[in-house]
Amino acid sequence: MASTQLLVPLFLLSSLIMLSGAYSATFTFTNKCSYQVWPGILSNAGTPQLPTTGFALQPGESNTIPVPTSWSGRLWGRTLCTQDANTGKFTCLTGDCGSSTIQCSGNGAAPPATLAEFTLNGADGLDFYDVSLVDGYNLPMLIEPQGGTGGNCTMTGCGASLNNACPSELKVMDSENGESVACKSACDAFGDPQYCCSGAYANPNTCKASSYSEFFKNACPRAYSYAYDDGTSTFTCAGANYAITFCPSPSSTSLKSANGQYPEAVEVSAGTHRTSPYLIGGAITILAANWRLWQLFF
Ligand SMILES: *[C@@H]1O[C@H](CO)[C@@H](O)[C@H](O)[C@H]1NC(C)=O
């Protein structure tokens, strides 16, 4: 017969085991654009998959997705998508993942596309995240950590609308109406190793900012503008959920830019710290399991 001395460590052990698996983060996607956006999600190799790899978001709509611990991968927004009436093929003018369906199913974004990159529970248990314009730009996107601590746990992204301001040699046009729908990276546009940080330029000493990368950096100082832009572009946080917002601020659409500065005062939904429903669920599971354990012995 088990003694109470045995039950106490058993209680603690079971609590620990269940608590470690109980917390996972969430990504809340919100579309504040005036147009429909189809988020795409690509999980890195060897990382647990998310429950979806692509879905539609109407203007004003939000969708929250649970994210397993230690997930890593990238997220982006597809725009100007249509489904062919005859073939049923789903394609997007920007950010297309080539899957022919709304789900991206393991395919990444065709550049140019604004990318949000995450590594959860990485070095020192920190989440690493950034918004990257290294593969070009297609729409404004912001990452906002909620309820996290430590590191440099702040909002990042690119709130500016750059499709019209984009240098003409980098512009991607909608052939139907002549509107600029995306902005290529110089690497994508010219294939020059100097812009791509490849070949002799594949290290931070030789690959430097260019006038093209500076166009992106001036508009969006917190976003990656070329491959070795790490110092000002990588952010860290622990225990946070993340809000991912397309077109964060309506005023950013008219960001012909007060001297090219990032709009620091972007509109942010009141960021009160919330208790994760997963944490509450985990706590209830632990209580229930321990109750059963006690009943077993008394
Ligand atoms: C954030 O902190 C990390 C180290 O945890 C550092 O490498 C990075 O440069 C910092 N980012 C910014 C934008 O200061």
From TrEMBL:
It comes from the Eukaryota. Keywords: Disulfide bond, Signal. InterPro entries: Osmotin/thaumatin-like_sf, Thaumatin. Transmembrane segments: none annotated. It holds the Pfam family Thaumatin. This is Thaumatin-like protein 1. Disulfide bonds join 33-247, 81-92, 97-104, 153-237, 158-220, 166-183, 187-196, 197-207. Belongs to the thaumatin family. Residues 1-24 form the signal peptide.
